[in-house]
Amino acid sequence: MKLSIIGSGYVGLVTGTCLAEAGHTVICVDNNEAKVQELKAGKIPIYEPGLEELVRRNVQLKRLSFTASTREAVANSEVIFIAVPTPPQEDGSVDLSYVEGVAREIAEALSGYRIIVDKSTVPVKTGEKVAETIRRYGPKGVEFDVVSNPEFLREGSAVADLQKPDRIVVGVASERPVAAMRAIYEPFQAPIIITDLNSAELIKHAANSFLALKITYINLVAAVCEASHADVTQVAEGMGSDARIGRAFLQAGLGYGGSCFPKDVSAFIRIAEELGVGFGLMREVEKINAGIPEKFLKKIRTSLWTMKDKKVGQLGLAFKANTDDVRCSVAIEIARRMAEEGAKLRCHDPKGGEKARELLPASIEIVGRAEDVALGADVLIVATEWPEYRLLDWNKIKSLMRTPRIFDGRNLLNPAEMKSLGFEYTSVGR
Ligand code: UGA
Q1: 257 Cβ below 6 A of ligand 1
Q2: CA 258 distance to own-chain centroid
Q3: Which of 165, 190, 215 is the last residue of a domain?
Q4: What is the pTM of this model?
Q5: Is 88 exposed, middle or buried, given 0-12, 13-18 or 19+ CB atoms closer than 10 A?
Q6: Domain containing 114: what range?
Q7: Is 105 in the pocket of ligand 1 (CB under 6 A)?
Q8: How far is the CA of 4 from the centre of ligand 1 (A)?
């Protein structure tokens, strides 16, 4: 099918590329002309395993192209996806001005029947508003359908998540767009759940909030484990083996971060409360999650006695492994706060160093080799669970440190091994 995606950010670019790989002809649109030129030249603005190769291949096969013109995209496609940012506003509610702007641009370019699919994470009832906007600004009598098709990909495994989804949610207001949506997703061989528009929009916020709740729950269980000398990884395994609970998202650590969960949890609270439903449960989740960095720092402070002038080596800056994304990263927050307290930090991240540089004070050094953070360090922190950190030469690291102390905020390393190497080793809930 002929498709276009408006917005070539994380979701837009990966979705467009995977739809092209599935055999469709896809035009990716972005209003940033410089970005479009870079994409045309094969330069990918984000790190995502497998993406670059897929973009290159599909551009070569002429199934994937880039433009800054929404008009051109609308004219040349049957289905138009909206994948623009929906950032949080100061009060936690969602800024829908990009979605509204794109809806108007599409309306002004419409000349015949099109399906307009919203992929951005939006509050319930946004699809209705998009339809109203298109009716208002589009040519009189032009036919169209608005569909909600939330995206569930995770950064770091976006290509794999998109190509092998657990399910595809399609919210519609009429039967007419259903066949086309099934045809688009047929190559993915995943169950397609057809719902009404509002339910599809709610599924996304409800799912992300539930996952954030699950992470927060295990983090509280970890605190109980710490106080009772139990091991949260064993507890999580025992709990997660119950098929009704499931093992995923029971990894205790530094709490949830990134550009989705914090924003979606606070948006969902506002959405519910505006509809008259008190959501104290998720308010508590937000509060507990926000308190986790301080709990972690307190452990480090207690061990160091005073933070000022202590040398700290930090492994990890990205908000999780396999991504260069440092937005709302707990690792960044921890580094920044330690520097504010007078510690001297050396940090490393396999992919996120460059983006972290823009967010961290100049006094924090970012090094290119992981081992180098250990040089003369009083303490070493694991703040992102990059698997390659497990394979470091920990004997050498110990010899480089002034005092061999590790605070593993991600439970990445093996406690018995670290202790047998002579480290004073502290992790989360075990
Ligand atoms: C999340 C959802 O998992 C995706 O399904 C959704 O499409 C996406 O948000 C979105 O709304 O766009 P993402 O933010 O990329 O994806 O990352 P996750 O893998 O979900 O991790 C989120 C945070 O939770 C990270 O800070 C991670 O370290 C933390 N986490 C995750 C834990 O602390 N413990 C876990 O067991 C799992």
Answers
A1: yes
A2: 5
A3: 190
A4: 0.95
A5: middle
A6: 2-190
A7: no
A8: 27
